[in-house]
Amino acid sequence: MMLALYPGAEHGMTMFEQSLAGERASARYADGYFRMMRDFATNGRISGRYGDAQITRP
What we know:
Blueprint: E1 3-5, E2 14-18, E3 24-29, H1 33-43, E4 54-56
Antiparallel strand pairs: 1-4, 2-3
């Protein structure tokens, strides 16, 4: 099993901005997330870098 962690992204792979009041607002998807999903869906594996994802491999 592989695990990809995107630092600073929430569970839905969205990056967020935080207001002075502490409220979070989703701003964009993590860079590389959709490329990683496409590669896995088409090839059954991932390779290379996907933004700043930290990927652990077995």
